[in-house]
Amino acid sequence: MKSEVKPLVNLNINPCKMCMPMGSATAFYGLKNCMTILHGSQGCATYIRRHMATHYNEPVDIASSSLTEQGTVYGGSENLKKGLKNLIELYHPEIIGVMTTCLAETIGEDVPGILQSFLEENPGYEDITLIPCHSPGYSGSQYEGYFAALSAIVSSIKMETEKNHLVNVITAPISPADTRYLKRMFSLFGIDAVLLPDLSDNLDGAHDPSYNRLPHEGTDLAQLKQMGGARFTLELTAFHHKNSVGEYLSETYGVPYERLPLPVGLRDTDAFLNTLSHISGKEIPDELKKERGRYLDAMIDSHKYHSSGRAAVFGEPDLVYSTVRMMCECGVMPVVCAAGSASPELDGLIRPEISDLAGLYLVDEYKIADKADFKDIEEMIVTYKANILAGSSDGRRIAEDLHLPLVRRGFPIHDHVGGQRLKMLGYEGSVEYMDEIANQLIDTVETTFRETLYDTYYKGTAIDQKKEPESAEEIMKRKTKEHPCYNCQAHQFARIHLPVAPACNVQCGYCVRKFDCPNESRPGVTSSILTPEEALNRYLSVKEKMPNLTVVGIAGPGEALENWENVRNVFELIRKQDPNVTFCLSTNGLKLPQYALELKELGVSHVTVTMNAVDPHISGQMYQYIRYMGREYTGDAAGALMVANQIAGIRQLIANGILVKVNIVTVKGINDSHVPEVVKTVKSLGCFITNIMQMIPVKGSALEHVEPVSNKQLNEIRKQCEEIMPQMYHCQHCRADAVGTLTDDKSIQLKGFVAEERPVLVPVSKSLRFAVASKSGVVVDTHFGHAKEFYLYDYRNGEVRFAGKRSVEQYCQGEEECGEKEDKIERIIAALNGCSGVIAMRIGMEPAKKLTKLGIKPVNTYDMIEDAVKKAAEAM
Amino acid sequence: MSKERDLLLDKYSSRVFKNRKSHITQLEFGENGDEITANTRAIPGIITARGCCYAGCKGVVVGPVKDSVVITHGPIGCAFYSWGTRRNKAKPSYEGEPNFVPYSFCTDMRASDIVFGGEKKLEEGIDEIMELFHPKCIFICSTCPIGLIGDDVQAVARRVEEKYGITAIGYSCEGYKGVSQSAGHHIANNGLMRYVIGKGEEAPKGKYSVNILGEYNIGGDGWEQERILKKIGYEVVSVFTGDGSYETLKNSHLADLNLVMCHRSINYIAEMMKTKYGVDWLKVNFIGVGATSKSLRMMAKYFNDPELTKRTEEVIAEELAEINEDMEYYKSKLKGKTAGIFVGGSRSHHYQMLLRDFGMETTIAGYEFAHRDDYEGRDVIPQIKADADSKNIEEISVERAVGYDDRYSVEELTSLRNQGVELDTYNGMIKDMKEGYMVVDDYNMFETDQLIEEYKPDIFFSGIKDKYAIQHGGVVSRQMHSYDYSGPYAGFRGAVNFGRDVTMSLYTNAWSLVKPPWKTMPMLEGTLGGAG
């Protein structure tokens, strides 16, 4: 099995089981003139009464010994004896079930001993049958408690061993209505049955103003005493119980017995009736044959609805077993089968049938579990894609959350009336159960098929024109909903970052841009730089392979607005091909006031501004320098300019209806305590969300040695800021060429798309390397003599590829070697080693001569870098 | 004049008689007042309606705190039984606020944990919770075995606080402590006072701010109260604890006034906040149209601002105009009918006021777990003797915190009280009842049956455990704990809902169809052939 749902070890979240006394009390309710008392805190009795009354819509009276703190120290026998006495005097029961609780068992109460001395101290009570039942809440669920009580009943009652004609019938927990079904069957076959227990009337009584509080229906003491002499015991449960009544009666009194699963579904009802026929020596009555025929008819009629079902079945082991068997017969695929109680046998008993059906339906995955809580069950329902639930009403929370129908069976039913009347036994009960399942599946189809058909066959086609156009507000809402960086619920949507903006106008202290790096995943890194046309191709080919792609973003690797021509071209080209995709851009905000309006016109709906401070002094410390309008600024001046432009820019964006996210990079010792101030400011500007991030200390950056803030501190800051405005917790620090969903970046796998689709123009030839003097990284914009760094480009087979950068300083060997005499030009030339040519805005005569001598071709031009490289290469 | 009482007690054995007689009083309003015994142990074997200490702590007080995780430390049963059963409604107050009310968390202790201890399991369980849900506050509620096997839940809570920097409270609220849920209320109050109240610093922004104490938002009652208070202009800082949150409770000490709904379950906090932070408390009742109006007017008097008084009167008039027609109709259907009411702490008192709005009298009333002051008023508190069971529940004492002052001087408070503002006091249920009516403490099933037979009320308000027995007996019963999935019943709009539900219950067709035709039609006359 591929998927795995891991249950928690130490916690039960939303239990799918109750405790033993609940089951024991239920079992005792099937006896006539029997009252029960719980030895422990009175809350146990109160809680159980409350839950049973809600399910059965009947009064449920369980007494308590009302143990107090004193009782826990000195023992509770006095309380229990008092309780028994009061119970007897007020209700005059014939039988009293005396159940223990966690408390009584933990303090080690000897209940049989207490009962013994109670009878000795109170002559006159000898005729009352007292049945002690071990039911500590920590030893099992209500399912075990139920069987423990049945076993306690038969082993406490003094049996009359004289043989009689009765048949003992022991049942797993079933509803009063199903108990009545069993009684009808026995009477049809003329079998005198002793039912243990018989809940048919005590927990589903008729309206009767002369109501008697003592349960006055059910199996009476005389019948119980005859169980030892009965001619047969039929035990109706799919599981072997360690305290099996059938086994006990067989071993102690020689009553033969047979264990059968509850008669649910066709095969198990057949087997049950067959056994009744054997026991009674009578043929199956015609009315039952007709019932069988009707059930079979219904199975055939409904099979097409059934086959659409993927069910999750949960509850007590017998309910799960029988429901799953019936579903398999009818063709409903059980994909989640979960018992709340421990049931090690369950898997082995139902797996073969489920596996057969799964093979037929080509279903790979399903899950069978015991000891499951509703947290596990919900996870399994999602993982194994169930579309219908069957079990107790506690599944209603999941049904509501996941919008799935719930067919209620078993115990407890708390949110609907009629839990006591629910049927699943016999052909008629089964057909009722299966019809309910089929109808729920039909209802689901009925309410969703139009949408499904529309989505499958019409959506996006030519006939899909009638739709009302979305309002601007709706578009914005939808786009935000589908944007993985703005909505953490949108993780199924993918985005693509197009690396078209290599140049940057600020040097952040924490940033090193890398242009050919597949190994790092952080902002500023990309495998390559794309031209606008390449970017379009890349978008189109990725979109084809990734239909959930909703967002195109430009996030560097440099500053988007510093590469405005490229950015504009990319957006225009893509918009022509795809009118709906969301445009998103990230910027440091320095040039935002210049371009905010144009962004709006281009249809950019989401902008992320990285703003680390609103205090000029703090802001200034984040940058080594900024370049603006041809000038370089540092320190407070840089900070003041940044902050002023960022705020002005954000104001314009918001005035134009663009959603703004603000990223705040937290640097220890610089802005970490200032972050809430930033958040307050951007909140007042009307920003949507802030994303507080750690600085990643990148090797080679100015802040390389600053220790990053701890995750703990980061979360504290986020929490603090959450009180101001929403926070993004799911940022993945994406690369500038990220592709895919936030959690599954495909940038490396998909980077070949462009190359794959481009035909090889010329046979492989030698590659040429050019050094380009540029500040922007886009245009050849620098004098040769002023160049502090060169962008290296390789030309090969008609393609131009960015190959890295070289700083002039790096190639200078220092004064000792180079000498003071060696002029600046010499130093620059030293940096060009290995290049075939150098391209600059202007190269002087002298340097040109020297370069030519060294075999490096000088090219004077003012052009886009790539075009310049191409032309230069083709000229060579 | 105590005919019915004698009839009722007659059925008991001498020992039970001796115990029960002082818990049952038929009101005389004589010179000595009507005394009642309360908050003593339930008699074993008599089917009491009471729950346990854990139910009071987890189920009532801390369970509804929506942004906090409540872990039941113990075997699974108690966690299941206290899961979502009180219908406390809660919804996130802002986008992203967690709501854990629909969850049940439990350490699900097994036999081996009982033997070897469950502290480790609890701590590791909390690690799992922190990883999955990261709540700001965790309440650990212990069930019966915990105190006996020696798990130190307080120590676990301290370690959790240290490890995660959140608030964690370990409650030793084992079921056997005290004599009823009431012990659990007290224990829960102590923990909230110690670890939550006063932790926040966010002062209310409104001119007049209040907390609503002892309102658990069953069926949305708290929301109706907040609606009215906000309409007048009050700021509701926090609600203890229906739809409440750790985030708001921690600021509650900064409010101007505490409004106390359920006196029994929350009076400890009201008193301690008065002592420590100087916040006065006012016993209000928002159940019933008259009671709600009276409560609002007392509040206006307390703040003594003509503007606020004017607004209060405007709102009352507007609200009354809105419901008047409906109220008159239901009153025409209900006038003259009688009711019995057995509920937990304060509802048996509150709902008498609402029934009176419809012209109905409550002839039988009782509490599950009240103390004498809930019946007779707080004046009797000095006369209440502490017994072994109440001594086992910790009393914490607090002192005035620095920087907090009383709003009014003692003289001013006395003067306000003389004007009818029920400040820092509660007069109890009995004073609002009439001569001959029956008051029963810690009622049980037997007494409920007998009293219904003797008094024959038209409707009996109680809980699910009694409901079906009462209805089998031919008297309609409505649940006062969960409102039978209806509500809200509080405030002005709630009163109409209540009137509709009661009318519908009393007039439903089924009651007229109880008798089948063969019981009333004359037998067919004739003779059997051959006999003549």
Automatic annotation (TrEMBL), chain A:
Family listed: Belongs to the NifD/NifK/NifE/NifN family.
Gene3D superfamilies: Aldolase class I, Dinitrogenase iron-molybdenum cofactor biosynthesis domain, Nitrogenase molybdenum iron protein domain, Nitrogenase Molybdenum-iron Protein, subunit B, domain 4
Domain Radical SAM core: 486-735
Cofactor(s) for this UniProt protein: [4Fe-4S] cluster
4Fe-4S as UniProt keyword: yes
Keyword Hydrolase: no
SMART domains associated with the record: Elp3
Protein name: FeMo cofactor biosynthesis protein NifB
Superkingdom: Bacteria
A Pfam family of this chain: Oxidored_nitro
A molecular-function term among this protein's GO annotations: metal ion binding
Coiled coil: none
Organism: Lacrimispora xylanisolvens
Record key words, sorted: 4Fe-4S, Iron, Iron-sulfur, Metal-binding, Nitrogen fixation, S-adenosyl-L-methionine
UniProt-listed GO biological process terms: molybdopterin cofactor biosynthetic process
From TrEMBL, chain B:
UniProt-listed InterPro entries: Nase/OxRdtase_comp1, Nase_comp1_asu, Nase_comp1_CS
Enzyme class: oxidoreductase
Positions of the Nitrogenase/oxidoreductase component domain: 52-505
An MF annotation (GO) of this entry: iron-sulfur cluster binding
Enzyme Commission number(s) from the entry: 1.18.6.1
Record's keyword terms, sorted: ATP-binding, Iron, Iron-sulfur, Metal-binding, Nitrogen fixation, Nucleotide-binding, Oxidoreductase
Known catalytic reactions: N2 + 8 reduced [2Fe-2S]-[ferredoxin] + 16 ATP + 16 H2O = H2 + 8 oxidized [2Fe-2S]-[ferredoxin] + 2 NH4(+) + 16 ADP + 16 phosphate + 6 H(+)
Cofactor: [8Fe-7S] cluster
Family stated for the protein in its record: Belongs to the NifD/NifK/NifE/NifN family.
Classification via PANTHER family: NITROGENASE MOLYBDENUM-IRON PROTEIN ALPHA CHAIN (PTHR43457)
Name of the featured protein: Nitrogenase protein alpha chain
